[in-house]
Every structure is written in structure tokens, then in C-alpha cells.
Amino acid sequence: MTNQLVYIVDDDDAMRDSLQWLLESQGFAVTAYASAEDFLAACRDGMAGCIVLDVRMPGMSGLELYEKLNSRQCTLPVIFITGHGDVPMAVSALKKGAVDFIEKPFSDKEMLRLIGQCLELDRANREKRQQTEAVARRLASLTEREVEVMDLILAGKLNKQVADILNISIKTVEVHRSRIMDKMEVRAVAELVQAVMRGRQ
Amino acid sequence: MRMNTESTASQRNWVWSIPYVAIGIFALAMLALVWGLQKRETDLQYDALGRDVQWAEQTMRLHMQGAQDYLAQMARELAEGKLDRGAFQVRATQYLANTPELANIVWVDSGQIIRWTAPFETTDWIAGERLAGAQPASFARALTSGQPTYGESYVNHRGAALLEVYVPVQYGRTYLGALVGVYTIEAMVRHLVPGWFGEKYSLSIVDAAGQVLASNTTVTPADDALSYAIDFDPPGNGLALRAKAFRTDSGVARVVPLFLVVGLTLVVVWSLWALRSHFQRRVKVEKERDRLFNLSLDMLCIAGMDGSFRRVNPAFGRVLGYSAEEITGKPLLDYVHPDDLAAVVDALRQLAAGQPVSFEKRWRAADGRYRWLLWAINPVPEERLLYAVAHDITDRREDEEKLKSAFAFRKAMGESLVTGLRAIDLEGRIIFVNPAFCRMLGWSEQELLGLRPPFPYWPPEEAEQLRRDLEQTLAGQAPQGGYEMRIMRRDGHRFDVRMYLSPLIDSEGSQLGWMASMNDITEPKRVRAELEASHERFVAVLDGLDTAVYVADVENDEILYANHAFKNLYGFDAVGRNCWQVTTACHPERSDFQSDPQRLGLDAVPSELFDGEIRHQLSGRWFHLRDRAIRWVDGRVVRMEIAADITERRQMEEAALQHQDRLEQTSRLITMGEMASSLAHELNQPLSAIANYCMGSVNRLKSGDYRREDILAAMEKASAQAERAGKIIRRTREFVKKSAPVRAPVALADIVEEAIGFADIEARKAAAALRVDIPPELPPVFADRIMIEQVVLNLVKNGIEAMQQTPADERELSVTARLDGGDMVEVAVTDRGCGMTEAQAERIFDPFFTSKAEGMGMGLNICRSIIEYHGGRLWAQPNAQGGSVFRFTLPTHSPLTLAGEGPGERAIGTES
User: Fold this and answer.
1) Which burial class, exposed, middle or buried, applies to B34 when counting CB atoms under 10 A from its CB (0-12, 13-18, 19+)?
2) Alpha-carbon distance B813 to nearest alpha carbon in chain A (angstroms)
């Protein structure tokens, strides 16, 4: 994905600058921030990519920032950079759901691998979210009657049975059914079941 | 005077008899009067009776006259023949019915033959019979006289007294016979007088012989009843009518006045007698009073309200020399001493107001001298009189004056005494206490006098013993040496006294009680007790020592005193033996003494003889021996040796030395470890950056998509980071290199600057501000630079860590220094962190105490060791603004020369 960014948050100038240099050499788009506060100010909903976060920073620490992001329901994957002796802190971050941590000094390969992993995760996350949103949108476009008919179909009823239950003609049921298939953009009942399951989560 | 009294007495008796005589006469007169009145009343009654009887007789006679007339009428009709037998019956019977006193009417013819009778059924008179008894005589007398004639009364066979009247029947001169009316005398008495008469009197008819023929009542009046008799004629013949009055007034009524008179008389006599005896008593009392008045030694007088004498007794003459006549009527004020005049006038005014007064004033006697008189005057306002008594107190006042001065003298004497005096009577009651006694106890004299045991100054806990002592005293068995007792002040304070007792004898030689003298012996007793206590303390202290002490004579080396510890060591029979023999195993040689004690004079002692450590040859223990020449209690010079067992101390010192070595070794290891850790951390940053720059460049070069300037810039940056790493390593090497402590004068500011350089990264990470304030004029401190640097770094890092929870804008850590007393510099590391509790403040310097998750608890302990090694001090205290202050001091110069450095320094030095 071309629109994905790597966000670096580190207070050490040399560290920040050198990491950006390294990542750009591998073709990643990079934005760097000197403090957690700066990043938080720039943080938007539509961001895509991952965050490389120094655990120890003056002011707001990496962990605090991570907790803030979680509370904002930002789903960007996070890689923590930890110094000597910060391992217990990183472990507690992992337990809170951060993707990974990497201890200084780190090898470039390890770092690049982690970033690649994170971007992939981010992409998958967003795709899944988009699909779910689409199904939900389609479900919302169904009329009330169509929802009734669809529920009965999902329950495994035949057209005739549906007609009997709703006290309508089989023809009408068939019309509803084809409309539902169109609106939900599925071709078979099995697909419909999948879509509805995803959309109603 | 006696004669006079007797004559007046008889005269008085005569006077007293007059009332009795008068009362007798009065009583007799009264009796006569009563008798006269009663007599007169009886006469009146008799007269009334007479009149009533005469009236009754007249009434009866009238009735009988009526009957006689009727019979005469019938006789005439009979004579004229107008009356036949039948008519006679009718008329006679009719008449008889109307006249109850008539029993029968009978016609007797001249032949004295009874012809007709009425009523015809009567059996007393039977027709055809002749008159009998005295009847014919009466019949004949009637015919003879031609007048109705009454016959003799008689009693018939039925016992009824009857009287007959004969009325002659005459025709012309011819006597045809007579009509006889027979009266029943009883009926006469009953029917011929009215009823009221019968109620008042008993009326009876008596014949000439005095025999009662009939009476109107069966009630017989009393014999002495009032009676009146009158001849009843006709019928005559000696008949009499007698009335007796029923007594209407009772005898009592007649007697009452009599008794009243007698009774009242007796009462009057009695009351008179009582009055007389009362009067006699009064007279006697008055006489006694007069005698007293005259005999009194005190002057008695009665004066008017105006103050003039009315009556005075002879004592005035005796005391003041005035005769009664001379003074009577004179105003009392004339005799008052001019100086007292105002007071007496005042007293008179009070008297006039009705208040009794009493005063002592001077009065002029007839000889011109003044005498003191004590006056008591009572006013009686209703009589406008003053009753006064005066007592001559001149002598008493003189005595009093003398007594007063004597008393004042005695009192002054008594008050100056410090010995308490107390007298009790034979029953134990307090009769005298002196001021010293009161002062001792705190009770006043008034409160104590008259008290009986138990006395208030007896402490409750001693009361039983004191009571026994008192009983012994009262029994006369008080010990010669007196009692030693504990008594109580009023405020409850107890103190000891000694009390001596002696009998109290009055002027007549009889014992009044017991006099006790009491001395406060609290102070002497206390001094003695303190001496004893101090001796005991001295012995207890010496015996309580685990240091052996003995004293030996310097001349003959005999042990004079040995304490418990010494005896424990060398045997309990040590005293009196030769000291060298006893202490063979452990004693200094005589030659080691600084001076020969035998040559020391008293003016040279105390002086030190020996001070050293000697090993006991038998037990192998070490003793610290000190020998001194001192002056003994009896004045001679003796040698005192003190031997303290220092074996443990020596062992401990050795152990401590080893411990210190180990500690410092550990400290160094820890310091190195920390340094390594710090180094690794520091190096991470530049090394990571270098790696990043390099790999970034490599990647670009590989791909061929690069700009030369970019690569160049990155390489330069990498080079700069390498330089940064180099600096870190250099600094660390310097730190490690100087591990052998070298103390030298060094500027404190340099040390602190270097330490802050290390701590800077930490501080930045923790967002804490570091402030350093070292005055440039501070003298250099004498210290090992690296070690002190480590201490400062440690304290600063601790401070930063402590401020993790502090709000970011308050995280300030300051390092300040100041001169402390000229040869020390005090450094303070102040943080605004969480501070510490008191308990923590006590323990933070202990090894292995830590408040940090990853600390080993060695940091502060080592810091303190380092500072103390430098001869300074490290301590912590709370910061007034919150947080803690760690302070340590360092000397500005070495107290010893470099050659004299302590063993600790050597230990550290050899270790590196």
C-alpha cells in the first residue's frame, strides 16, 4: 500500500534522524516526531501505517502515549524501542496489545522485518474493517419486509415455507429474494450467510 | 431589830385575822338570811294551807247543808203525807244518784223502827228493824232539838266509816220520826272538794281520838309535812278536817344555798391563805434582795435616764468613799474622769436608745484619786430608769498590765523558739501549743487546742503506733530518750520529729498533764540516710562493675579494698593479702610504673602510674590495666589498680576491621557493576544511531538510488555519534582508572560538575531540572575525587528516581554547598520527591534496605562508608517543601598528615 506511513516518536535527535534515514532507504514513507505530545497533536483518524515508539521519553512516556492511543481507538500497530533495563516495561506494553518491542541496539533487518509485519497487519485490519462497513451499509439498505424474508431464508426455509409464514405468494417471495441478493451483492445463499454474519458483528 | 421584827410580825398576824373574821360574820349573816327566807316561805305556805282547808270545810259544809235541806224538804212532804212510799223511793234514789257522798236515805218512824230505805236493795238498813247502838241517842237528840242532828261516826261491818244525819219529821208539833241520811265519810272527802285540792293536799277526816276515818288519797305525806286541822262542825262530835300539803319543794333546793354559802366561804378562806403565803414569800425575797444590795461588794445603783443617781448601795461608800446621801440625786457624769467623759456620754445616749451597755472607765473617788470601774448598765425605758452595776477593777487592771508585759515577754520568748512545745492534760487533750509547734504542723493554735487523740497531725499509716506511744506517755512510761516519730503537716507532708516528754506540774504540785518538746529531725535524718545511701551506692557501683578494682598500700602491698569483680577473679579472701602474690597472673611490672608510688607525697597524688593492656597468663584473656596513686580515706598514699577485661572488645575490633574490608570490597564491585550498566545504557544511543546511519547508507548505495550529499551527511552524523560514544567510554575509563583512592585537595565544584554530567541523561529522561549552587569561594575539600563523585551521583540519581510521582514542573533537584565551621564543607542534595517516613529515615543507611524495585540496597550504605572514611558524616532529613535532603560533610584539609592515614585507606588501596 502506497499510502502507509511509518511514524517515528523518539526524543533523541540522532536516533530519530538515523532511523528515518534507514527506513527511507528501504522505501518507507516516514514522519518523525520529537515527543509523544507532538505526535498526539498530529494524530488523525484516517492514519494508516505503524508507529515506532521510544519507551523512555521526557514528558509523556511511550507507554502513556500508547494508552492514550488505545483510548482513542487508534488501531495503528506499535513497535516499542527499549533501552537497557527497560525490558519489564516493554513486557507490560506487550501485554496491553502492542505488536512488538525491539531492544537497542537493534539490527536493521530485525527492524525492517517488524515494520513490514506491522504494515501488513495494518492493511489487513483496515481491509477487514472496510468489508464489514460495506456489508453493514448493504444490510441497512434492505426494507423491513426484505429483512423478514432474509431472516427466514437464513433460517433455511424454502420459498414456499416463507410464503406460507408471511402469508404472501411465492412470486412475491421470489421477487424479494432476488432483490435481497442484488442489494447484498451476493450470488448464493452461502455468501449471503457469510456477509450477514460479518455485517452483524 | 429582832424585837422589832417580832412586833411587826404579830401586828401583821392581827391584820391578817381581819379578813377571816369578816368572812365569818358574812357567812353567818348569809346563813341567817337564808334561814329567815325559808321560814317566811313556810309561813306563807301554812297560811295558804289554812285558807285552803277552811275553804274545803266550807265547801263540804255547803254540800252537807244542801243534803240536809233536801232531806228536810222530803221530811216536810212526808209529814204532810204528800209522800208515799213509792215517791219516797223515786226521789231518794234520784237524789242519791246525784249525791255520791250519801249512801242511804232511810225513814225511821218515831218508834225508832226503820220503815223505808233507799236505795231499796241496801242491806245495811232493813225495814222493820230498830235502830241500834248509838243511833237511838242521835235520833232522840234530833227529835228533841227538832233540828237535824249528826250522829256519831262509826265504822260498819264492811269497814267503811259512816256518818249519819237525822232530820226530824214533824207535823205540827208531832214528831213522826226522822229521815236518816247516811254519809260515807270517804266519799265526802273524795267528792266534796275539787280535784286540784287533792293534788296539793292530803285531806283526811279524823275523829276525836285522832283516828283517821277517811282520806282522799292513799299517799301518806311525810311526817314532817305541813299540816293544818280544823274542827268539822257540823257534824261536830270532835270530828276534824285535816290537810297535809304534799311537799312541793325538795329538801335539796333548800340545802343548796346553805352549801353555797359554806363552800364559797371556804374557798375565800383558802385563797386568802394562798395569797398570804405568796405575799410572805415576796417579802422574804425582797428582804434578801435588800440585804444583797447592801452587802454587795460591787457597786449597785439605780439612776434616772438623765444619769442622776436615785439609789446607791453602801459599796459606793466603800469603793469611792461617798455616802449614799452625798451621792443620791447627783449626776453620774460628775464623777467620770475628764478623758472618759465623751465615751460615757456616748454610752448614756445608747442607754437612752434602750440598749444595755458595758464599759470600763475611770471614776473619781472621794479622795480625788481615780479608780477603774467596770460598768454594766441596763436601761428600763418604761420606768425611765437605769440599773447599773460597777465593779472595781483597778487592782485587776494593774495586775493585767503586769501580766501583759510578762506575757509579752514570755510570748516573744516562746515565738523565738524553734522547738515545738505541746502540753496535754492527763486525758490526752491538748491544752497548750507554742507558735513553733503550730509552724511545724501548719495548724493554728485555735484549731489544735482542746483536741483529743487521734490528733489531725497523725498520719493515718502511723496512727496506731502514735496512739500506743501516747498511751504509754499517759501511763507515765515515756522513754527517757523521747520518741522518734513521723508526723504530718496540714498539707499532708510527712516529716520526722523527736519528742521529749516531761510531766506538767502546777503551782500546787499536782500533775496537770504532760509537756512535750518536739524537734524536726527530718534534715539530720535525711543527711544520715543520704550518707548511708551514698555509701551503698558507691559500694553497689563498684561491686556492679565488671571491671576489677583493688586498692593496695604502697608500703606493705597489703590489699585494702577489692571490689566484687576483683574477688571473682582472684578469690574472695583477697583483702589483707599481698597484692603481688594475688595478682601474679596479670600485673604490670614495677619497673613499668611511671614513678615509684612509695616516693610520692600526698601533694603529688593523684598521679597516673601505669596504663596498658596485659594478657592474663592463665586464662589468656586481655586486660586493660590502669594504676594510679591516690590518697586513701585515712590520708596515706595507696595504689589503685583497675583491670578491665577487653578480650571481647579486641575481638570485636578485629571483626569490625575485617567486616569493613569486606564491605569496601563489595562496594567497589557494586560500583563497577553499576558503572557497567550505566555505560551500556549510555552507549546504546550513539551505537544504534551509527548502525542506522550506516545501514541506511548501505541500502541506498545498494539500490543505486541515492544522492551523494545525503550519504555524506549521514556518514558525518554517524561519525559524530561515534565521537559521542568515545566520550562516554573515556569518561568511564577515567572513573575506573582512578579506583585506588587518593585523597588530595580538590575543588568541590569539579566533583559535582562531573557527577551531574553522568546524571544529566537520567535527569532529562525523568524530565527533572538539575540546579547546582556551589559558592566559588569554597576552599577545596580533602578527598578522593572519584569516590565523592560516586557519592554525589548516587544521591542525585536517588533524588531523580524519588521524583517519578512528582508533577513535572516541580521536579527540581538541587546540589548546594556551604562552609561548615571553618574546616568542614557541607553538601546538600535536595529533591522534591516522595520523601521518606521516620522509620525509613532510620533505616535507609542500613545494608540491603531499599525502597526501589530493582535496588540492591547497598547504595546509601556504601555512600556513608565512603563519607565516613573521609572523616565526614552523611545523614538525611525531610525537605520542608516536600521530599528529602541528603547532607554530607567533608573536611577541607586532612586532620592527620598523609603518613597518618587510617587503616581503612590501606585496605581499599590494596584491593584495587
Assistant:
1) middle
2) 16
